[in-house]
Design brief:
- The chain has 371 residues and is α/β, with parallel strands linked by helices.
- The protein has a single domain, classed as HypD, alpha/beta domain 2 (Rossmann fold), CATH 3.40.50.11740.
- Helices cover 39% and strands 19% of the residues.
- The longest helix is centred in the middle third of the chain and has 17 residues.
- The two termini are 33 Å apart.
């Protein structure tokens, strides 16, 4: 397929890997930030294709995975209201809260609906004026413009029965949190191409300057990821720390200005709690004061909720690149896609889900021994 096959050419991939092998003189740890990149790496076996000393670890780039347990429980509390139609993308329905998931609530009678666009909620609101329509607005900067448009249109069209439960998180503060951790072992980053298509990459320049760490904005196809890895290894081997843009066909420094304008009309920056990670300052969006009448968290008064995480789940360490899914004693046993303990086993971008889907039940050395 044109524009896809050219980024999956195995002959070109071999040349890129050979070049990495040629210039590499020592081990390096590189984190891909985005969950979509993680799935591509695991699906195509890129981590096995790379030289032994190049380790790819998986970052907190899955928005479903990092949505805090408190926020999941708040969503469930709202969805239980008999006068609420709770709308969400499908990947949130099986994310476990403290006691259940949205699928379970739906089976118990809650009106939970899957939508394919936030703007679908406007149609539902017009058709059900007696109901309160709540959209679960999660995601990184990538999904923020569409969610902002929902609120902006609801306000301007006078649809007072539309609100959103905001759980937006931002990538640059999460990278800073990883680098500030005493447990950090990441030496370079493959940056999130989709996020940067919206926001540009100016926000990553201060991270490179402050922490002296290479960041390469990278796409999602195998050759994108291999080329991004080559760029980072070149920098690491030469002692450089620069910001580079591998994903030039989709990303520029300034990003999508109209989308950014809409974001800042609707959202403000706030502190945000990340599941398995904790609170990261100035790492999320919240609704601006003038949109308070569309703030589900305020309207339903769910500010304080007690939560309880699984004691077996190590998703927080996985999201910070400290451990990998197969390091979890529950992986593939107590925790499966059918019976998940944490969001990383549920989401289409979760590292645990990727490892399970593509048979990574064994560590690399175990697979070599079996072969």
């Amino acid at each position: 397929m044109k524009y896809v096959d050219e980024y999956r050419n195995h002959k070109v991939a071999k040349k890129v890997v050979d070049e990495i092998r040629r210039i590499q003189t020592r081990p390096w740890v590189i984190m891909e930030v985005c969950g979509g990149q993680t799935h591509s790496i695991v699906k195509h076996g890129l981590d096995y294709l790379l030289p032994e000393g190049i380790e790819l670890v998986h970052g907190p780039g899955c928005p479903v995975c990092v949505t805090s347990l408190e926020m999941i429980d708040k969503a469930h509390a709202i969805a239980r209201h008999p006068d609420v139609i709770f709308c969400s993308f499908g990947d949130m329905l099986r994310v476990p809260g403290s006691q259940a998931d949205l699928f379970t609530l739906k089976s118990q009678g809650a009106d939970v609906r899957v939508v394919y666009s936030p703007l679908d909620c406007l149609k539902i609101a017009r058709a059900n004026p007696e109901k309160k329509i709540v959209f679960f607005a999660i995601g990184f900067e990538t999904t923020a413009p569409a969610n902002a448009m929902l609120v902006w249109r609801a306000k301007n069209e006078g649809l007072k029965n539309v609100s959103i439960l905001v759980s937006h998180v931002l990538v640059p503060p999460s990278i800073a949190a990883i680098l500030q951790s005493p447990q950090n072992r990441v030496q370079a980053f493959l940056g999130p191409g989709h996020v940067c298509a919206i926001m540009g990459y100016r926000e990553y320049e201060p991270l490179v300057a402050r922490y002296k760490v290479p960041i390469v904005i990278t796409g999602f196809e195998p050759l994108d990821l291999l080329e991004g890895t080559l760029y980072t290894v070149r920098q690491l081997e030469s002692g450089r720390a620069d910001l580079e843009n591998q994903y030039v066909r989709a990303v520029n420094r300034e990003g999508n200005k109209p989308a950014q304008k809409l974001i800042w009309q609707v959202f403000d920056i706030c502190d945000r709690k990340w599941r398995g990670v904790g609170s990261i300052p100035k790492s999320g969006y919240k609704l601006r004061y003038e949109f308070r009448d569309h703030d589900a968290e305020r309207l339903f008064e769910v500010e304080e909720i007690d939560t309880k995480e699984s004691q077996l789940c190590i998703s927080g360490q996985i999201l910070r690149g400290i451990k990998k899914p197969h390091d979890c004693p529950a992986f593939g046993k107590e925790c499966t896609p059918q019976q998940p303990l944490g969001a990383t086993m549920v989401s289409a971008e979760g590292a645990c889900a990727a490892y399970y889907a593509y048979g990574r039940h064994l560590k690399r050395e175990d697979l070599v021994q079996v072969a």
